[in-house]
Amino acid sequence: MIAHDIHAARARLLSRRWFFGDCGIGLAGIAAGAMAAREASGGIAPPSPLAVKEPHHAPKAKRVVYMFQAGAPSHLELFDPKPELARHDGKLPPADLLKGYRAAFINPNSALLGPKYKFQPYGMAGIEMSELVPHLGGIADEICLVRSMQTDAVNHAPAQILMNTGSQQFGRPSFGSWTLYGLGSEAENLPGFVVLTSAKGTSGGASNYGSGFLPTAFGGIPLRSSGDPVLYLSNPRGIDRDTQRASLDTLNRLNDMAVGRFGDPETAARIQAYEMAYKLQQSAPELMNLADESKETLARYGITDPSQAGYARNCLLARRLLERGVRFVQLFHEAWDQHGGLTKAIKKNCDDTQQASAALVMDLKERGLLEDTIVVWGGEFGRTPMVQGGNDGRDHHNRAFSMWLAGGGIKAGHVHGKTDDFGFNVVEDAVHVHDLNATLLHLLGFDHTRLTYRFQGRDYRLTDVHGHLVKGILA
Amino acid sequence: MRYAKLQVRLQDLFPISSRCRAAAFLHAVAGLLTVACSAAAASPNFQKDIQPILAEHCAHCHGIDEETRQGGLRLDIRQNALEGGDSGIAAIIPGKPAESEMVARIHATDPDVIMPPPYEKKPLSAGQKKLLESWIADGAGYDPHWAFVAPQKAVVPAVAHASSPIDAFVRDHLAEKGIEPAPPADAATLCRRLYLDLIGLPPSPDDFASFERDGYEKTVETLLASPRYGEKWARHWLDLARYSDSNGYEKDLPRDMWAWRDWVINAINRDMPYDHFVIEQIAGDLLPGATQDQIVATAFLRHSMLNEEGAIIPEEFRMVEMFDRIDCVGKAVLGLTTQCAQCHTHKFDPLTHDEYFGLFAFLNDTYEARSPVYSPEQLKQLDDIRAEVATAEAEMRSQRPGWRDEMEAWLAEALGNQPAWTPITMEDMHSSGLLTHPTQRKDGSILMVGHRDRDVLFQSEPDLAGVTGLRLEVLTDGDLFMNGPARDELWTVARLTVQAKKPGDDAWEDLKLVHATADFSEPEQTLPRPGVDPKKNDAKDPKKDGQSPTVSIGPVANMIDDDDHSAWRADRGLLLRHQASVAVVQFERPLDLPAGTRLKIAMRSHAGSGDMIGCCRFSLTKSPTPTALPIDHGAMLAGRKPGGERNAAEQAAIFTAWSKTIPEWSALQDKIAAAWKRAPMAPTTIMHLAARSPAQHRPTYLLDRGTWNQPRHEVRPHVPAGLHPLEAAGDPPRLAFARWLVDPRSPLSARVVVNRIWQMLFGQGLVETPDDFGTRTPVPEYRDLLDWLAVDFMEKGWSQREAIRQIVMSDTYRQSAAVPPEVLARDVNNRLLARGPRFRPDAEVVRDVVLAVSGLLTEKVGGPSVYPPVPQNVLDFNYTKINWPTATGPDRYRRSLYTFRRRSMPDPALANFDAPTGDLSCARRLRSNTPLAALTGLNEPVFVEAARALALRTLAEAGGDDAARVEWAFFLCTLRQPTAGEKRELVAFLQAQRQRLAEGWLDAREIATGDPDTLPRLPAGTTPQDAAAWTLVARVLLNLDETVTKN
């Protein structure tokens, strides 16, 4: 029996907690246990790859919610007022504007298309935004609107991958994975990097939130809005909770005997993984169940039916995830590719998203979470000031577009950067994707040049060999 | 200091996932020890101690890359280091560290002087500085990087009780370290280990009985001869080749590549020597008398992702494909990472920017071809057909000994009757949906790259004065299916319209076309309109709503009749349709249009985009009443070449065309036609490489920063100077390159293979980074063993089977994997090989084990990929709607090797066990151990179905006693009897669940079948409650650590 107890103790102590690190609740006890384990097992106490880690410098923010607007929203209808473009509606763009320019579909020498919606100043800061986004107007004093974003890619899949992984090549870790790799996770019973999706699948697919060459434990895990929120979460039909518990107890005891048999720490890790799976079977449905949210909260997000999947519900779920210590939540809403039918579709997209996006910011603020959470809103590129098709569409445009940020360390009520009269080129304070990522990492406590991972003989970074800190958007 | 640098080496973090902290700790200790020892006595070893410092801390500015080199100083070459850089100050003076500039610089405190400079953020430790000093004191000897020197067989150490060279190397090293090897594993463990490693399936109880009867060695032979062996080992190569059943990127459309997958299985089962294996995959099509198999082999280089997003520039993404090919060859064959050199000279390894494009050039002069793949029986049929045609043609020739002159005379006359045609140079070309990217070449031909689309528009500003006719040539191209003219199988032209706009005019004016002629048209026939259900549309008026249920196909006049429901087509039959055609139309009257008039030609196919022309050319003539002659256009195109320059196919085309003009041969012509009619339909196709015709040679340019549209200068195919030379043996460049890759003088290729085999068997390679043997890769612990194996591998004819046999026959492989804590602490990752390998096998093996022990596994080799069950919420969340006909019946339980691989939607059941996505070449899978994998094992439908099946199997095979059943089921899963304690646990669980079933807490049918209304197919004398209770036990057993682990 003594032997068995030793094995059991070792199994317990060797085991890793997959979804949260060693610094969560019960820090003291675990630390003492880990010390004991190191002595008991000759120095092998495998930590979780998701154990909480300290960054390079004191961070301004410790978690991120990234609302990715896939398909590329038009900055010209939403965030970047261009009265001059309205005046040039129907005219050809100036020739020098198009020099060396490459559009995706259209002949660049197509007529200019005036903005389809009016702009107005919002908030104390008087930030000009579209009439389509009054709720975002309501948080104007919380956000930093970047009107000078730039990217390299002009096709959806490569541009989404670039935005999310810092490279147009597939196979690189996503921003969320880098964050988890750098900081670990504080979430108990939930993954550290959660993905929420609405509308349809994205052009970039699973690579948008994959772990790339980092270990798979750092990858984003989608919480799905229909069926099992986590794949294979439900027991097979007919197996209830008690039988599931009894099954896992039996399995764990048998596996515990295998620890004694082989002395393989991996077996201990497996016991823990099954335990965490069991906990996830409770925590994920609990997370998805909005019954404990007040009517006011639901109304604020614009949720009329809590069981209705969609962007609004995802925003509320994001808050619930962040509250539970999830490090990185990323929403994907693939709906913004308005080559035609712009007027109607972009209004629908705003109706579907802007209220909940704004609600999330204010909800976080009221709960004291906004001050150390980074909120990011944006897509993979912008749209051309030139028309595509008849008179109601815009093509892909990578030279200038808008995003907005809020939260920990971000300068609130601020507009950063400027484009020309047509919203075509950036004329002031350009922010490249790599600059944005470098800055976000900075807020999380990292020198982006030093958050590296060696793969194939090379130290890889989220920002590759690029990226400059954008001081202008820092509080 | 809490703000630690987050630079973690892979092996520190996740080698075998849970062992990291200890590993890091041990590495740190080892590092300190090295430093301490070197400082005290032994001279630093250049390769082990110095080279890594130079590579890590100095090479960026003082290495191979000219662009980033500072002060003209190189430290990677001794001569340069001794001479110094631009300053002329010697960086190193051998034997005199105190006078060496390097030593002064590394100890400097002034931030402007100290090396490495602070902004590089790569400071040297005190230990490293000491090492450099003592190395200089010892004379600063340089050795080339170990992996760039061809391997040699070291003398096998004389060690008592070592039964093989492998064991001699290992035991010798262990003795040095004072470590005892582990005892041999027991028979059951060994048997299961062998089965999982060699065929990827667990042994059945019968297999184990044979093992006990026949012994270890004979079992090894049996397994290596099993067709299952090829399936298991093919999967590793599929990872490297980034095999997928879909194209990737946004659209991620399905592709047919499984014929190549089967080629790999077959090659491995036949133990094709590895050098041939590589040569055929890089250049099989260029081998003399290349077979269909050898062409299929070249699909290896076509597994790159294919971007079919609407708005792409195709050449940009063709370049991405090319980069991916180089990356794949680098990782899979050379064991070198090449990506760095795509944009600039490699910082560490001997691969300059120019040399990268030298490699690129070997592969760049190719078509992206697609061809049918016939079954062996069909190939025989095709041979018969060709023989029949050849016999008939031989007969013709023998009837007319002067045929050659007659033919040439006929040809000259036919060519003489052609009007003079001027190809139109297009100024703007696009498709209606902007999806196709028509690209005009020098000869005026236009290739439809990009997506398919229904309408293509061509604008130009040609000389139109007096123009009488327009010619449309439908041309073949190597980038198109079967080197034919269609984007897919067939092409049609439903409508050809021409408009003109005079200078100053705003509107386009229609130019009426009359009198269409063609070299060939099919007879008129009425076919159902593709995509339309004829029954539903019966009543509708075709003219009114454009929804005619039928189309009229055939005569060339159909394309100018203003009716989209009739089209020109020239299908000459299944195999003969892939040839050129020509049509000529006349303008109603000769054009009288001023200079500067724009011409717009619009061409439409009839069936949406499904039958688009892939390559064409438009020309104009001023000859009166131009027509097309009824002579196959391919023959006319060939005939324009002087006789001496025509290849055999061109000569044959001319002969065929001419022979049709000889009335006496009509009976023989009928014979030929009848033979062609018997042509079989291939079951699948393959994407592969094909050599470009010399006329379409594609030069390679060095691309500035690897940017596709920034060519600098032309680069000829050449290999890196730092590796073995390429012997010019008169082979085409790509074939020469293929041979060079596996040249016995290669320092890398053989090492890379044997290391990979080792990795598959032991869980990690002798070199931990199987795809990177470059200068940053330290000398491996067992370098002598690696080199011995590499040389032996080549000596034994590059036989992978032999190498595998050799390793599994060793005592080292056969050791027990059980590890006492103190040994574990000393060698967490088993780098020393003092115990046997224990790890969770690859995703496919895990799933196959579960299928096999439950008795569900369908053993069928090869064929189209099957669709595994994937949760609906995964299927629903794709960018495009996808067709996913989930396999039912036996196909559902095929080996996991055969499940459909969709890149943007990896099968979660396999992904949760770390199967790669196929986006990039993958030489090593990381192994995780997560709750998601646990949920998969517990709840994924196939795993659940396996638990139900294992329950019924147990009930059927193990008699009526619960204890006996527990023993049997446990034995099926682990190949051993449960201990008393294990048995107690399982029986207690079983009885508790029986109780719950009996009390009605659980529904027996629902558990046993998934449906409360379905009865399980119960073995005689058993109840649904038995089936349910045993399903629960089986679910536990299938998830046992021992079941999903190679022990």
How would you classify the helix and strand content of chain A by structural class?
A: alpha/beta
Q: What structural class should be given to the helix and strand makeup of chain B?
A: alpha+beta
Radius of gyration of chain A: 24 Å
Q: Percentage of helical residues of chain B?
A: 25-40%
List segments of chain B where confidence is low: pLDDT < 50 over at least 5 consecutive residues.
1-41, 537-545
Q: What's the total helix number of chain B? A: 38
Strand content of chain B: 5-15%
Assembly state of the chains shown: heterodimer
> Please, what is the average pLDDT of chain A?
88
Globular, elongated, flat, extended or rod-shaped: what is the shape of chain A? globular
Largest interface: A-B, 104 and 123 residues
Could you characterize what this model shows?
The complex is a heterodimer of chains A (475) and B (1047). By secondary structure, chain A is α/β, with parallel strands linked by helices. Chain A folds into 2 domains: 2-48 and 240-267, no CATH class; 63-226 and 309-473, Alkaline Phosphatase, subunit A (3-Layer(aba) Sandwich), CATH 3.40.720. Helix content of chain A is 34%, strand content 17%. Chain A has helices at residues 2-14, 27-40, 75-78, 83-87, 134-138, 156-165, 175-183, 241-262, 265-288, 295-301, 311-323, 342-366, 433-443, and strands at residues 63-68, 119-122, 127-130, 143-150, 193-199, 221-223, 328-334, 373-378, 382-387, 394-397, 401-407, 414-416, 418-419, 426-428, 431-432, 452-455, 458-460. In chain A, the strands form 5 sheets. In chain A, strands 1, 4, 5, 6, 7, 8, 11, 12 and 15 form a 9-stranded mixed sheet that branches. In chain A, strands 2-3 form a two-stranded antiparallel sheet. In chain A, helix 1 crosses helix 2 (27-40), helix 1 (2-14) crosses helix 8 and helix 11 packs parallel to helix 12 (342-366). Chain A is globular, with a radius of gyration of 24 Å. The N and C termini of chain A lie far apart (61 Å). Chain B is of the alpha+beta class and 1047 residues long. Among the domains of chain B are: 1-34, no CATH class; 43-143, no CATH class; 182-225, no CATH class; 419-628; 941-1038, no CATH class. Chain B is built from 38 helices and 20 strands. In chain B, the strands form 5 sheets. In chain B, strands 3, 5, 6, 8, 11, 15 and 17 form a 7-stranded antiparallel sheet that branches. In chain B, strands 4-7-16-9-10 form a 5-stranded antiparallel sheet, with no helix packed on it. In chain B, helix 2 runs parallel beside helix 6 (126-137) and helix 3 crosses helix 6 (126-137). Chain B is globular, with a radius of gyration of 35 Å. The model of chain B is unreliable at 1-41 and 537-545 (pLDDT under 50). At the A-B interface, helix 6, helix 8, helix 9 and strand 16 of A face strand 1, helix 2, helix 29, helix 31 and helix 33 of B. Strand 16 (452-455) of chain A pairs parallel with strand 1 of chain B.
